[in-house]
Amino acid sequence: MTAAPEARTHPPGTGLVHGVAGAALDWVRDNRSGFVLPDDVLEPHTDVNRTMKPLGELAQLCTTVRRRTRPGDPHHAAAAALVRFAWEQVREGELLLDLARNEPFATYPFEIYAAFAGEGLRHEGFERLASVVAGTSGWALTEQHANRELGLLNSERRIGVPPHSDAEPVLRRTWLGGLPEPWTFERASGYALTHVVFHVTDWGTAPHRMPHDVAGYLGTWLPAWIDGCFENGQWDLGGELLAVAACLPDPPPVALVETCWPVLAAVQDSTGAVPETGPPLVRGGGGPQDGGGGSDESTGAREAPREFLNCYHSTLVTAFAAALTLARNGTAGMDSGAGGSV
Asked: Does the structure show a pLDDT above 70 at 104?
């Protein structure tokens, strides 16, 4: 008699994580207008932190969600649609070429383009200019913080131009690379270390690139740091640290998933938005995870509307961290299609 196949089980808590990811992606889809670039985006007075930065983050984080989910997963389709939207906003690379012509040694057009290049979305003119600029001494000698230089090195790898430096010594110049006393962790070093991890591991798609000693250090101290962030209402940073936990060679511990994700789910409102900081909104009927309607008839409590600039990043980060967590816990898989860099 042939034995019945063993039923596949998923780690506890992953169902909740899947729901959080879906609600966050729904919010991003419903608020796409916040990422639309203004007509004067090329003008010198335009603040790139309110225009190109949000769009670049949308492109980068959604490309990762798409790459870390299977084609049949609704999260995969939602992320792919958002990447296409972002590519349309940059006129399929033409706008980034215009920005690079205006500021040849600015790194942000290069890094935004690299997010699309990782998806196989390419613009011949941009890459021609990038290869010339990236081959100059001025490009290699641009002064920047080590964690930002790691981002540039990863972008060079994605685009296909020769890296201007070796990543290992740059990593060792960062706060994280020095393996400092864990009690010196604070907000600035926290955001710096998360991006060091994202750049070294190509946004979680290459966990094997993380050096063993750094991975061990993070595995030891991430739970305490995440707990501290959540105690202080630092939801955006806490979400990034959850993403870091899913970027390491070993998958996130089950205990971390079980204890931390319910906390982040509790601050997600009924629209799917997650605040960057502060206490969760008061809601009587519950949010997307418990089917409530976001109001309480007995008390009259209502959800206050979110401001786009105060929640778009934390909501994107939540979807990003959730996709990585699910992929590393065996409930999703990396897309092996065009553009996945290793």
From this structure: yes
CB atoms within 10 A of CB 8: 7
CA count, 13 A, side-chain hemisphere, 250: 13
Rounded Cα distance, 38 and 45, in Å? 12
By CB atoms closer than 10 A (0-12, 13-18, 19+), residue 291 is exposed
Say if CB 28 and CB 308 are below 8 A apart: no
| Signed CA dihedral, 135, 141, 142, 146: sign only | positive
| DSSP state at residue 269 | -
* Burial class of residue 25 in the structure, from the number of CB atoms within 10 Å of its CB (0-12 exposed, 13-18 middle, 19+ buried): buried
How does residue 304 score in pLDDT terms, banded at 50, 70 and 90? low
What is the C-alpha separation between 241 and 108, in angstroms, rounded? 23
94 φ/ψ angles, rounded to the nearest 5 degrees: -65, -40
Cα gap 40→46, rounded to integer Å: 7
Name which of 123, 36, 33, 32 is nearest 79 in CA terms: 32
Average pLDDT over residues 81-105: 97
- pLDDT above 90: percentage of residues in the chain: 81
Residue 91 Rama label (left phi>0; alpha psi -120 to 50; beta):
left
Q: What is the pLDDT of residue 305?
A: 56
Rounded CA separation 273/267 (Å): 9
Q: How many CA within 13 A on the CB side of residue 336? A: 1
